[in-house]
Amino acid sequence: MKSVVFSQFTSFLTLIEPALTKSNIKFLRLDGTMAQKARAAVLNEFQEANQFTILLLSLRAGGVGLNLTTAKRVYMMDPWWSFAIEAQAIDRVHRMGQEDEVKVYRFIVEQSVEERMLKVQERKKFLATSLGMMSDEEKKHQRIEDIKALLDYEVTSH
Q1: What would be the CATH architecture of the domain defined by 2-106?
Q2: Which residues form the Helicase C-terminal domain (predicted)?
């Protein structure tokens, strides 16, 4: 079963590679450092060749305009500020032509900045869908509140 692993950090994708190699999992990688011709070759190989089951994909390089319907699993390794960016990335797999159910997995550590980012995403999604358009001043205030929410956490000892 083919899977796409998204991260906004290419350095994180680099950290994943040795574990996949050690486990004899065939993978490909696509990120923003690659020329357009190389990107096209990677995408074609992932879509056509059965031996590659994982595509490591940087969120910025793979968020828009790709068709990855041969994959059935999406792994979001770290949250992005905007739920819309993540939704676009997931839609690369879950789009017209996809015949199977797509499972999406998010890796969120409890009491971490990632967990707070997820809450910021949820709040932004709520605001976007139920409150409509905000003024520039309201948007500025909301961005400040988002940053405060990320930095406001309790340090607990175990």
Answers
A1: 3-Layer(aba) Sandwich (3.40)
A2: 1-142
